[in-house]
C-alpha cells in the first residue's frame, strides 16, 4: 500500500510508485499471455500427435471447463487498462 502524500514532492513520489507498480503488474500479465500461447501450441502438438482435433476448452479435475483464448482476452484487456493508466498504451499504439 502506498501512503498518502503530504507535499507535492511526496505526491509525485507516490504517483511514480503507483505507476511502477502498475507497470510491474502489466509485465507479469504479459508473461502469462505469452505462456498461454505456449500452452496452446503444446496442446495443438499433442492433439496432432494423437490424431485429434484441438479442443479450445480445457477440462479441469473438478469437471469445469475453461477457454484459454477467453482467458487470454481478459488478461490482454487488463494489460491495456494498465498501459493506458501509465500512459504507455498510447505510446505503444502510436509506435506499433
Structure characterization notes:
There is one protein chain. This protein has 96 residues and is mainly α. The chain has one domain (10-95). 72% of the residues lie in helices and 6% in strands. The protein is built from three helices and two strands; from the N terminus they run H-E-E-H-H. The protein has helices spanning 8-49, 68-86, 88-95; strands at 57-59, 65-67. The chain has a two-stranded antiparallel ribbon. Helix 1 (8-49) runs antiparallel to helix 2. The two termini are 34 Å apart. Residues 90-96 have low confidence and may be disordered.
Low-confidence stretches: 90-96
Q: What percentage of the residues does DSSP assign to strands (E)?
A: 5-15%
The strand order across the widest sheet is 1-2
Quote the average pLDDT: 85
Distance between the termini: 34 Å
- Series of H and E elements: HEEHH
Q: Write down how many β-strands occur, each being a DSSP E stretch of 2 or more residues.
A: 2
Structural class: mainly alpha
Largest sheet: 2 strands, antiparallel
* General shape: elongated
Q: Give the number of helices.
A: 3
Q: For the CA atoms, what is the radius of gyration?
A: 19 Å
Summarize the amount of helix as a percent range.
over 70%
Number of domains: 1
